[in-house]
């Protein structure tokens, strides 16, 4: 079953593929989201990361 959610920025992700949410020191984004099967991390804004944390609790 696919469980897709839409984040405040408009990004849609499948949370069944969630592996990790990592704080990022890069200027481009606040967090990096790692999903199973995805070749590279997805940059997330702080608001997206905060909403994702709430959903995954």
Write the layout of secondary structure elements.
Blueprint lengths: L3 E3 L5 E3 L3 E6 L7 E5 L6 E3 L1 H11 L1
Antiparallel strand pairs: 1-2, 3-4, 4-5
What would your notes on this structure say?
This protein has 57 residues and is α+β, with helices and mostly antiparallel strands. It has one domain (4-56). It is 19% helix and 35% strand. It is built from one helix and five strands; from the N terminus they run βββββα. The protein has one helix at residues 46-56, and strands at residues 4-6, 12-14, 18-23, 31-35, 42-44. The strands form two sheets. The protein has a three-stranded antiparallel beta sheet with strand order 3-4-5. β4 (31-35) and β5 form a beta hairpin. The longest helix has 11 residues, at 46-56. The chain is globular.
Write a short abstract of this structure.
The protein is of the alpha+beta class and 57 residues long. It contains one helix and five strands.
Q: Could you give the order of the helices and strands?
A: EEEEEH
Decide which structural class fits the backbone.
alpha+beta
**Strand sequence of the main sheet, in spatial order?**
3-4-5
| Number of helices, where a helix is a run of at least 4 consecutive DSSP H or I residues | 1
Low-confidence residue ranges: none
- Give Rg in angstroms: 11 Å
The rounded distance between the terminal residues' Cα atoms is: 19 Å
Give the strand tally.
5
The level of helicity is 10-25%
How many distinct folded domains?
1
Percentage of β-strand residues: 35-45%
Mean pLDDT: 89
- Overall geometric form: globular
Sheet having the most strands: 3 strands, antiparallel
